[in-house]
């Protein structure tokens, strides 16, 4: 338990020291993140914000999953939530949107904060509380929001988008679904 807590604190501190990005204009940042990130999502046994189990099998049912990595402390993350809710409601049949709340841990107040953010924004899609394997994966994320695209095999495909850029997410998703 202490290891998980320490890892979560380390992750939040690293993201807080580099900050949130409200747009994706910094191409070098995008390229650095893309190079640092794994090519495959880790095997995980996490929970959603309601405490229900979520594993990496979540990717198997769709051709592409848009994974939005967010923090409850991040104004651009919160600001794009209404648009993400709209995106989730209008997602093509072979795609889905999920959130990965980087600063939430089992029993933390960030879970309640994330629920409130989603509810207020009308964003009704699965958001995951990271387990230890996802926390390790998130150690390569320097800023939030960061959005990645995952295929049905759990492989990271397409480009990594750093910063709030819902139009960019839509365009990348359209390319990947062709």
- Strand percentage: 15-25%
| CATH classification, class level | Alpha Beta
**In terms of per-residue confidence, which ranges show pLDDT below 50 for 5 or more consecutive residues?**
2-18, 24-28, 30-36
CATH topology: Glutaredoxin
Query: How far apart, in Å, are the first and last alpha carbons?
Result: 43 Å
Which word captures the global form? globular
How many helical stretches? 7
SS-based structural class? alpha/beta
Q: Give the fraction of residues assigned to helices.
A: 40-55%
What value does the average pLDDT take? Answer: 87
* CATH A-level architecture: 3-Layer(aba) Sandwich
Radius of gyration: 15 Å
**Total of domains:** 1
Q: Can you write the helix and strand succession as a string? A: HHEEEHHEHEHEEH
Number of strands: 7
By CATH's scheme, which homologous superfamily applies?
A: Glutaredoxin
Kindly report the spatial arrangement of strands forming the biggest sheet.
2-1-5-4-3-6-7
Report the biggest beta sheet as strand number plus sense, adding barrel if it closes: 7 strands, mixed
């Amino acid at each position: 338990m202490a290891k998980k807590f320490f890892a979560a604190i380390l992750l939040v501190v690293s993201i807080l020291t580099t900050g949130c990005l409200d747009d994706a204009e910094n191409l070098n940042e995008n390229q650095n993140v893309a190079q640092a990130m794994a090519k495959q999502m880790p095997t995980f046994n996490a929970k959603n914000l309601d405490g229900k189990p979520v594993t990496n099998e979540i990717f198997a049912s769709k051709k592409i999953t848009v994974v939005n990595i967010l923090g409850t402390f991040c104004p651009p993350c919160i600001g794009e939530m209404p648009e993400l809710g709209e995106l989730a409601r209008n997602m093509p049949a072979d795609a889905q949107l999920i959130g990965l709340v980087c600063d939430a841990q089992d029993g933390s107040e960030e879970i309640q904060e994330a629920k409130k953010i989603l509810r207020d924004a009308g964003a009704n899609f699965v958001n995951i509380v990271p387990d230890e394997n996802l926390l390790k994966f998130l150690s390569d994320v320097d800023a939030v929001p960061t959005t990645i695209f995952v295929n049905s095999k759990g492989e990271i495909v397409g480009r990594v988008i750093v910063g709030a850029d819902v139009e960019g997410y839509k365009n990348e998703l359209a390319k990947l679904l062709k």
